[in-house]
Design brief:
Blueprint (H helix, E strand, L loop, with lengths): L1 H12 L26 E4 L3 E7 L2 E6 L2 E6 L2 E7 L4 E6 L5 E5 L4 E4 L10 H4 L5 E7 L3 E6 L9 H6 L5 E7 L4 E9 L2 E6 L5 E5 L4 E5 L5 E5 L4 E8 L6 E8 L2 H6 L3 H10 L26 E2 L2 E2 L9 E6 L5 E7 L8 E7 L2 E6 L4 E8 L2 E2 L1
Antiparallel strand pairs: 1-25, 2-3, 3-4, 4-5, 6-7, 7-8, 9-10, 10-11, 11-12, 13-14, 14-15, 15-16, 17-18, 18-21, 19-20, 21-22, 23-24, 24-25, 25-26
Length: about 375
């Protein structure tokens, strides 16, 4: 009873969830240029879903499954639909989720497994996968209202239409374990038989126990979190943050009539909304002296896009970060993979794979 009353009062006063303030980028999140200055591994169109399977580094590019050996990407397999998510098990199984809801397993104990059409119809927007052992695959569905390609519309509609599912590969059964989530976009199994999920539109990480109970783990992030990846040390995790929050976007999210008019009359690339790519058009909503000085982009300019990777300790507290700022181009980091002392990051908005050196989750 108290929660609805508190929510009503917060809405009137602009407090709590209804505030338009955003957390400062300070402490371990203080901006730097480590992503922008990192060596380029390979230019590649829209790299996403980086995973490490044994000694292999795999990722997706559109409908292609790719492998990178050294600095050379090479195709492994092409699919009839875009690849939405990948996950690798300790037994070298690779799960592949496609845009149409299909989930396919290559290698390992369940090689050749695929969901039937009836089950796949429940999964209209798969955003992330992770294995828990060889027999269980956990699945994030970002929204049952919009496909992954329409993530921006899902945010602007203020949906909480996401869910987390468990697929038992032995029994071929699919079970929903949490629903009404605000675009779950990353998932990691912890050592307590729970799942840690990045809930993008709430800018937080949550833990979901086997009974489906949800509790916050890390709240009030300065951006929209994407995928989680384990650190090679076995302690801690990597969190990709694909776009920044801002007071202007928070304000727009609270103006229903303006937002509806904007979505109806303006192309989505020009909405006052987060973006995966650095500014490239004079028609974009943030322009002029607020962004540039003497024709040069200010690193501290307000921006709808950036690149951000956060190193988390075993308690999912931030300990270090890597950035590409407003004046950079390696924006829209949606996934990373750790191979020892090298972290490979995919800039979905910058069409680049970059190599970041680290030592125990800290910049090297």
């Amino acid at each position: 009873m108290i929660a609805p009353i508190r929510n009503f009062i917060d809405r009137i006063r602009g407090n709590g969830r209804h505030a338009i303030t955003t957390p400062p980028m300070d402490g371990v999140l203080q901006p730097n240029t480590l992503i922008e200055d990192a060596p380029l591994l390979a230019p590649i169109s829209r790299p996403d879903n980086l995973v490490r399977r044994g000694e292999e580094m795999l990722f997706s590019s559109g409908n292609q499954l790719m492998r990178i050996n050294g600095t050379t990407p090479e195709p492994v397999e092409a699919f009839p639909h875009a690849v939405n998510a990948l996950a690798a098990s300790t037994g070298n199984a690779l799960a592949i989720a496609l845009m149409d809801g299909s989930v396919i397993v290559r290698g390992g104990k369940h090689d050749g497994f695929s969901l039937d059409q009836r089950q796949a119809a429940s999964l209209t927007c798969i955003t992330a996968l992770c294995f828990s052992g060889e027999d269980r695959l956990h699945i994030c569905q970002g929204s049952h209202r919009n496909p992954l390609s329409e993530w921006k519309r899902d945010l602007m509609e203020r949906n909480a239409a996401g869910s987390v599912w468990t697929l038992d590969l032995s029994q071929k059964s699919l079970t929903k374990i949490a629903s009404d989530l605000a675009f779950p976009y990353g998932i990691l199994a912890d050592d307590k038989d729970s799942l840690v999920v990045s809930e993008s539109w709430q800018s937080r990480l949550i833990s979901i126990d086997p009974s489906g109970n949800v509790r916050p783990v890390l709240e009030d992030l300065p951006g929209y979190p994407a995928r989680l990846a384990p650190q090679s040390s076995g302690r801690g995790a990597w969190l990709s943050v694909f776009a920044p929050r801002s007071q202007l976007i928070e304000f727009v999210l609270r103006e229903d009539k303006f937002r509806a008019d904007m979505m109806r009359s303006i192309p989505s690339d020009l909405w006052m909304a987060p973006s995966l790519t650095a500014p490239h058009s004079f028609l974009e909503p943030l322009q002029g002296g607020g962004l540039k000085q003497l024709g040069v982009m200010k690193p501290w300019a307000p921006t709808r896009s950036f690149g951000l990777i956060i190193s988390l300790d075993e308690n999912f507290a931030p300990v270090a970060s890597w950035h590409s700022r407003a004046d950079g181009t390696r924006h829209g980091i949606t996934s990373v993979a750790d191979r020892g002392e090298e972290l490979v990051a995919g800039s979905l908005g910058g069409d680049a794979l970059v190599s970041l050196r680290h030592s125990g989750g800290l910049p090297a």
